[in-house]
Specification:
Blueprint (H helix, E strand, L loop, with lengths): L17 E4 L3 H13 L5 E4 L8 H4 L6 E5 H4 L12 E3 L1
Parallel strand pairs: 1-2
Antiparallel strand pairs: 3-4
């Protein structure tokens, strides 16, 4: 079965080795892993929204904060540099 390009239905879609759906914490981590551990693999990361971050970006609750420290939720390739180890919600 041939897959078609959504932008041009007459054109076959580009082949990808890895397709990552969602640019939340897991999607961003997966993209970094593919890029660093499988540099020969082609990949794309799709996000439905205009911004990345998933649940942590989508839901904002003024006056509350996360109960998880940012070092646990952070990325080894981009460590948390904030003054507080617990981020606002």
């Amino acid at each position: 079965m041939e897959t078609l390009d959504a932008q041009d239905p007459q054109k076959p879609a580009e082949h990808l080795d890895v397709l990552i759906v969602g640019a939340g914490l897991s999607g961003i981590s997966a993209a970094h892993f593919v890029k660093t551990e499988c540099p020969w693999a082609s990949y794309a990361l799709f996000e439905a929204r205009d911004s990345i971050g998933g649940t942590w970006d989508l839901f904002r609750y003024p006056g509350i904060r996360s109960d998880s420290d940012m070092f646990t939720l952070g990325f080894s390739f981009r460590p948390w540099q904030g003054e507080k180890s617990i981020a606002d919600g």
